[in-house]
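Late entry, written up from scratch paper. The run itself happened at the end of the previous shift, but nothing got recorded in the book at the time, so transcribing now.
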Amino acid sequence: MTYDFDQIIDRRQSESVKWRTYGSDVLPLWIADMDFRSPEPVIQALQARIAHGVFGYGVESAELHATLVERLSRRYGWQVAPEACVSLPGVIPGFNLAARAVAQPGDGLLMQTPVYPPILRAPSNMGLTRDTAPLTRQADGHYGIDFDAFEAAITARTRMFLLCNPHNPVGRVFTRHELTRMAEICLRHDLVICADEIHSDLVFPGHTHVPIAALDPEIAARTITLIAPSKTYNLAGLKCAFAIIPNPDVRARFLAARVDLVQSPANILGQTAALAAYRHGQPWLEQVLRYLEANRDYVRQYVAAHLSTLSMAAPEGTYLAWLDCRQAGLPHNDPSTFFLERAKVALNHGTDFGTEGEGFVRLNFGCPRAVLSQALDRMRQALL
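Output as recorded:
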């Protein structure tokens, strides 16, 4: 089946947070969901399940867990047991539960900034301290890791490293070498690794996602990996995610935390959608990746040609562009407010990702090209 990602679907009449937060004159390129229909097999599976007509409490699907295990083996050569898969309503509850499971109030949580705002807030949610190891931004906009600074950020109270890979917002897909160096440091300091890998399927040619837990059994034994079909197949509203926890002791602590905070982890429609997506969604995924890659390149070329006071490095994964607006001379160095008010384009505030995001915005290019083009044209006009 050939999918039409140029189709413009009216989401303002739905319950979309993305399209209803701002006025009808604003083009929303902010929150990370795509404006595309999900794969047809997913829609058909949901329709069949809805036809049953009864939607009571559900159990975790053994069939779905088995499918997930097979998928991890096929895509990454990562062998996990079905019992290592734990259902969750989302990745955000997952890393908060992980922090609760492995740390005590006053302990530290290590992260690499700028980073996804819910990751940034996780320490305060759980009464922990934030131990930051900022990513290093090079002259071309590419971000790397200062491993000496990464290790220096670890204190005697640090208990967990919260990795975001592919990284939101900077778009890095960390290499096997980078992941190995980080994992070795974490092992040396006896840290648990919680890996938010929700964008793992959205990686562009020339780059490869490596689950950090797949590097080595010793690393896997100290890792909680969080994944979901939500970003991949545009299913965020169906609330279905997974924690992959090979170590039985770590898994028991995580499950104990989940019992307290997540009473009913199985979303029956989310599980239905996930199973259909993982089994039959690959043709859609291949097509959407090509479209997203073309959109990414369009944004990069447009910025270079028409938004000369802005700059960006092409993201290696995700459908999010991290735009440096610091040379644009915008009021109060607040580009998101400027573009919202002057261009009627909604972008994410860079400072929401940490102090390192001051003067930046995050732009979601997971939309039809016509919408993207119109938004960029508005931004260009606002800067004239």
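Residues 17-40+282-383 form a domain with the Aspartate Aminotransferase, domain 1 fold (CATH 3.90.1150.10).
(Scratch paper discarded after transcription.)
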